[in-house]
Amino acid sequence: PIPVIPTKDTLNKIQQNKIKVSKDYKFQIESVLYMGDMGGIGCAITVPEVLESTFVVSLTHLKIQAGHPLAKEIKSYQKKN
Description:
The protein is an alpha+beta fold. It has one domain. It contains three helices and five strands, in the order E-H-E-H-E-E-E-H. It has helices at about 10-15, 35-40, 70-80; strands at about 1-5, 25-35, 40-45, 55-60, 60-65. It has a five-stranded antiparallel beta sheet. The longest helix is centred in the C-terminal third of the chain and has 10 residues, at about 70-80. The relative contact order is 0.22.
């Protein structure tokens, strides 16, 4: 799993599903999905405390910690898209 923080808009959508998490909550990317040229890269993120809650979010709507081994590549992808 890769720890990530969602953007403000993504966090608001998650909270609309009655899931209470703070703005600094670290979600986990559990799987990565290629959704075609139009959809780009989607990430299945989970809320460990709510086992049945999984959301598919575009990689461009997630923030990764600078020290993560894939941070440079992910940020490069996000700038292009």
